Amino acid sequence: MSSLIRTGPDRRPHTASRPSTPRIAAARTRLEIAMYFRERDSVIFSFLFPIIMLGIFAVAFSEQIGPDEGPIDFAQYFLPGMVASGIALVSFQTMALSLAIEREDGTLKRLRGTPMPPMAYFLGKIGMILVVGVAQIALLLAVAALAFGAELPTEPDRWLTFAWCYALGTAAGTVLGIAFSSVPRSAKSASAVVVGPLIILQFISGVFFVYTDLPSWLQNIASVFPLKWTAQGMRSVFLPDHFEDVEVSGSWQHGSTALVLAVWLILGLIVCVRTFRWRRRDDG
């Protein structure tokens, strides 16, 4: 008899399913990229600074550098350092400054109050860094090859080294930027607090000077930080093989490079989890 009883249409309220975290992160990545390129001053500095510095080296130093068996032009020698500098600018500096500003103007506080998962927000930031970083390095390499005659590697193993060194250097720089964003006390002081130490590291990490020409005590300080290892890894990609003998250790030290960058990545993640703040210091 129960089969003769007609049931009416299901009148239960339908709830819209929430988009998955990856979908939200992809949408957030597109938004972050759009917002990044609206900040023209930041874009011009991040994209043009390594190119301008490489051009200065190419014009100011016409002689060649390196061992007697195969010296190279200054532009070729300093190209790896400019690549490493670009990675630091796009990952560490961009992340630290943008988060400090968003915390100051209340953006982070408002986002924390939305249903958006925090992981989607950070994945959006990371996605933006990866896209912008690839574009910046592609432009730098194109200008270096076409305008300054730099020779780009053709061996697949060198590009494989470039890939893992870029990935680890960018990942470490990004999480360290997130962690360091809590250091500035305000958005006004963020530029000085973030850019100042980064400029110092560039001078002692083999970016603007030949690393082996620096005093040993400066080399020891630089070897603690990831920028020195990123620059050394990039030298193994863009410099001839015999330049390996010029390194302090007489080796490219790929294993040590991967280890140091991985350690900084892990330390940065730990510091991020423990210290990241969604609100200003004076907002509770």
From TrEMBL:
GO terms for biological process: response to antibiotic. Residues 1-21 are annotated as: Disordered. Its main location: membrane. It is a multi-pass membrane protein. Residues 41-279 form the ABC transmembrane type-2 domain. GO terms for cellular component: ATP-binding cassette (ABC) transporter complex. Keywords: Antibiotic resistance, Cell membrane, Membrane, Transmembrane, Transmembrane helix, Transport. GO terms for molecular function: ABC-type transporter activity. InterPro entries: ABC2_TM, ABC2_TM_bact-type, ABC_2_transport, Nod_factor_ABC_transporter. It holds the Pfam family ABC2_membrane. The chain crosses the membrane at residues 43-62, 74-101, 122-147, 159-180, 192-211, 258-276. It is found in: Cell membrane; Membrane. PANTHER family: NODULATION PROTEIN J (PTHR43229). Belongs to the ABC-2 integral membrane protein family. This is Transport permease protein.
